[in-house]
Design brief:
There is one protein chain. With 171 residues, the protein is an all-alpha fold. It contains eight helices and no strands.
C-alpha cells in the first residue's frame, strides 16, 4: 500500500511538473508573439529560438516567418524554409502551408509542384478556417500546372503523412 502511495505521489509530481512546463512554454510563446507584434524583434527572436531548441513547432514557424519577411533579421528564404519545414513535419498547419507555398515558387527550396501539392493537401486537412481555404486554393492552383500522375503521387504522399521530430539543423 505504501509503495502505491509513493508511486502515486511521484507520478502526480511528474505530471504536475510537465503541466507547469507546458504552461510556462505557452506563456513564453505568447509573450514572444506579443513582442513580435509590437515590433520588438530581438527579444521575440531570442524567445522563439529558446523555444525552438526545445522543439516548439509554433516557435519554429515564427522563426521561419521572421526570416521570410526579414523582421529583425536579414531576409533569407533558405533559412525560412528550414524553419517552416521543422514546424511542418511536426504537424504545424501554418508551417505546412508556408513550406508548400515556398515549393510553388521555388523560394529557398527547389521549385517542386508535387511537394507543394502534398504539403498544401496536408495543411488543408486541418480544420482551421481561413488557413484551410488558403491551402486548398493554392493546392488547386498548383494542380493546374501538374500532370495527373504528379497529382496522384502528391495525394499518395499526403495520405501517408505522419508527424515526426525535426532533424534539420542550421549547422
Amino acid at each position: 500500500m505504501r509503495r502505491r502511495i509513493i508511486r502515486f505521489l511521484v507520478f502526480s509530481h511528474c505530471l504536475w511538473a510537465v503541466c507547469l512546463w507546458a504552461a510556462a512554454a505557452s506563456a513564453d510563446f505568447n509573450g514572444a508573439v506579443v513582442a513580435y507584434d509590437r515590433g520588438k524583434f530581438k527579444p521575440a527572436m531570442n524567445e522563439f529560438l529558446h523555444l525552438a531548441e526545445r522543439g516548439h513547432a509554433g516557435a519554429e514557424f515564427m522563426l521561419g516567418a521572421m526570416y521570410f519577411y526579414g523582421k529583425g533579421v536579414q531576409r533569407n528564404d533558405a533559412l525560412a524554409a528550414i524553419w517552416f519545414h521543422k514546424a511542418a513535419i511536426k504537424g504545424n498547419a501554418s508551417g505546412q502551408l508556408a513550406f508548400g507555398s515556398l515549393h510553388i515558387r521555388g523560394l529557398g527550396v527547389r521549385q517542386d509542384l508535387v511537394k507543394a501539392y502534398g504539403w498544401l493537401t496536408v495543411a488543408g486537412n486541418h480544420a482551421i478556417p481561413g488557413l484551410q481555404q488558403q491551402a486548398i486554393a493554392l493546392r488547386d492552383e498548383a494542380a493546374q500546372l501538374m500532370k495527373p500522375d504528379e497529382i496522384a503521387d502528391a495525394q499518395r504522399w499526403a495520405s501517408g503523412f505522419k508527424t515526426k521530430a525535426a532533424r534539420l539543423t542550421l549547422e
